TrEMBL record:
It comes from Rhodocytophaga aerolata. PROSITE patterns: STAS. This is STAS domain-containing protein. It holds the Pfam family STAS_2. Gene3D superfamilies: STAS domain. Residues 8-108 form the STAS domain.
Length: 108
């Protein structure tokens, strides 16, 4: 069983190239290479990007840094990126205790 799921749904109209990127499962260091490649590709190809985190089993600092970096990269290229973050209570509690309670707001 794969421990990460990546779904890409492009929406191209006459003015803007948009994409929804859904990430599920374990967003951890061992999956960082695959995640980084997908995010870089999407930033190159699309103008408006929505990243949705859902059904997250595990989330570590490496993936949090990737999402924050993606946000900065998109902004520097005058592209729009937003994140929809749904995290289980267990992960939210750990993030609060680790000083990352503002993570969802940081990526929006």
């Amino acid at each position: 069983m794969k421990n990460i799921q990546i779904s890409i749904t492009p929406q191209i109209d006459e003015h803007t190239k948009r994409v929804n990127l859904t990430l599920e499962g374990e967003l951890v260091l061992k999956n960082l290479h695959e995640l980084t490649a997908e995010v870089k590709d999407i930033i190159k190809q699309y103008d408006e990007i929505t990243i949705e985190l859902k059904n997250i089993i595990n989330l570590d600092l490496a993936c949090i840094q990737l999402l924050l970096s993606a946000k900065q990269t998109a902004l520097s290229q005058q592209k729009r990126i937003t994140c929809k973050v749904e995290l289980p209570v267990e992960i939210t509690n750990v993030m609060e205790h680790g000083g990352l309670a503002d993570f969802p707001a940081m990526v929006n």
